[in-house]
Specification:
Layout (H helix, E strand, L loop, with lengths): L3 E5 L7 H8 L5 E4 L8 E5 L2 E5 L12 E4 L4 E2 L1 H13 L8 E4 L3 E2 L2 H12 L13 H9 L12 H13 L13 H21 L3 E2 L1 H10 L4 E4 L25 H6 L8 E7 L2 E3 L12 H10 L11 E3 L1 E2 H10 L4 E5 L9 E10 L2 E3 L6 H4 L3 E8 L16 H14 L3 E5 L7 E3 L4 H8 L2
Parallel strand pairs: 1-10, 1-11, 2-5, 2-10, 5-7, 6-8, 7-9, 11-15, 14-16, 15-19
Antiparallel strand pairs: 3-4, 12-13, 16-17, 16-18, 19-20
Helix pairs in contact: 3-4, 5-6
This protein binds inosinic acid (IMP) and magnesium ion (MG).
Magnesium ion (MG) binds next to loops.
């Protein structure tokens, strides 16, 4: 049995959901370890569309158990909506869906604070999804957060809520006892939290123990990353990042497993680049190629509906992602979106001042001010959506994949050319194919 981490190698929205979908039947458990309702994927099953924010899409595979780990921040109201939607659609969650009792909770005042901050005219806008994810992690790190377990003790909850809320309201209530309007607000929150807690109770457990026991008993786990490497709080383009560890290392802390229990890491890259929200994006194309990528790739945010910024594949950022995640192999998704371009470009380095930079820079001023150095690659006219083997791809498409593979120094074991499972081409003799056999 293999335990594998699947992560995004760019700025999120790499098509991880589709790869997870393909891999899930080979695993016993799918666990999510970071982020919160800022993530969103839409999964289609027949005529039905499932919009999932917290719950791994593995839930749609009946034999698989799903876990929301301690590293995730949970919006109880939004999660209950997801649960309601799934059960309404006939998906049974009983004894196969678990929420960590250590996961932190997103409170409505966090969302209000984040919205105010994003809308204020300070020039510090991040372009967040406004789901309260950043404030929930801020509360966690400043040790004023509320964990799922805290919802079950009214005394603890009332005492902690006051501090949690005060963190975002100038701190005036910190240490003091809430009174007047503030007291009423806390009372409202206590009661809302209590009712959410009751509804979530059947799913809440010590997932660290559960997962540890299952792994020891031989279960295989797919660790489902959210967002992407360039949005990681430590390794991304800070401060234009999300507030969690979206790289492979987050799987250990976010689900309470040891690095020794992980057998491999697979990265997911889109065949071009997209980004939502603010922040540097060296290969962004604001003109015709960008528009074309957006329209062909339906590049609009699933959570916020915002048009995604689109651009050429950035091999500098991708090689960095492959390295820091120790990717054993990668998937290249949405290759079919590139069908019909006369010529494609791949960024191989950045130029800044007089120098050529080949390693992803840590300096935000370089990242926002550099000019990409591109290699041009011939496009292809053929439709790739019917290709079912690597050999069936048009010559230039195969060259495009191989060029990326060489530049990022990581094998591409899966190429995806369409939204259906048949549109995923797995390289027959590869690390990925070996894992999949191993996980049977
Ligand atoms: P937050 O995670 O809502 O705080 O947003 C911080 C940054 O991460 C913004 O640029 C968001 O657009 C981006 N972001 C967060 N989640 C996702 C995602 O699932 N896909 C793509 N971008 C995301
Ligand atoms: Mg998404």
């Amino acid at each position: 049995m293999a335990n594998i981490v699947l992560i995004g190698g760019q700025w999120g929205d790499e098509g991880k959901g589709k790869v997870v979908d393909l891999l899930t039947p080979h695993f016993d458990i799918v666990g999510r370890y970071s982020g919160g309702p800022n993530a969103g994927h839409t999964v289609r099953r027949g005529d039905r569309k499932y919009a999932l924010r917290h719950i791994p899409s593995g839930i749609l595979t009946p034999a698989v158990s799903c876990i929301i780990g301690n590293g995730v921040v949970v919006d109880p109201a939004a999660l209950l909506e997801e649960i309601g939607f799934l059960t309404g659609a006939g998906v049974s969650l009983k004894s196969r869906f678990w929420i960590s009792n250590r996961a932190h909770v997103i409170l409505p005042p966090y969302i209000e604070w984040e919205t105010r901050r994003e809308e204020s005219d300070t020039g510090r806008k991040i372009g967040t999804t406004r789901r309260g994810v950043g404030p929930a992690y801020a509360a966690k790190i400043t040790r004023t957060g509320i964990r799922i377990i805290d919802l079950y003790d009214p005394g603890t909850l009332a005492a902690r809520l006051s501090d949690a809320v005060a963190l975002f309201e100038g701190g005036e209530r910190l240490g003091g006892s809430p009174s007047g309007a503030a007291g009423a607000e806390i009372a409202r929150l206590v009661s809302a939290c209590a009712s959410h807690a009751e509804a979530l109770k059947p799913f809440v457990t010590d997932t660290v123990r559960l997962l540890g026991d299952r792994i020891r008993a031989g279960s295989s786990v797919l660790f489902e990353g959210a967002q992407g490497t360039m949005l990681d709080i430590d390794h991304g383009s800070y401060p234009y990042v999300t507030s969690s560890s979206s790289t492979a290392g987050g799987a250990c802390t976010g689900l309470g497993v040891s690095p020794t229990q992980i057998d491999g890491v697979m990265g997911v890259f889109k065949a071009y680049s997209t980004r939502v929200g603010e922040g540097p994006f060296p290969t962004e194309q604001t003109g015709a190629p960008g528009e074309r990528l957006r329209e062909r790739g339906h590049e609009y945010g699933t959570v916020t509906g915002r048009p995604r910024r689109c651009g050429w594949f950035d091999a500098v950022a991708a090689r960095y992602a492959a390295r820091i995640n120790g990717m054993d192999c990668a998937a290249l998704t949405l290759l079919d979106v590139l069908d019909g371009f006369d010529e494609l470009q791949i960024c191989t380095a950045y130029r800044h001042g007089g120098s050529v930079i080949k390693e992803f820079p840590v300096e935000p001023w370089i990242l926002s001010d550099c000019t990409p150095v591109y290699t041009k690659v011939a496009g292809w006219k053929n439709d790739t959506t019917e290709c079912r083997t690597v050999e069936a791809l048009p010559g230039p498409a195969l060259d495009y994949v191989k060029t990326i593979e060489d530049l990022i120094e990581c094998d591409i074991d899966l190429v995806s050319v369409g939204p259906t499972p048949e549109g995923s081409i797995v390289r027959p003799v590869s690390k990925l194919s070996a894992w999949l056999e191993d996980a049977e």
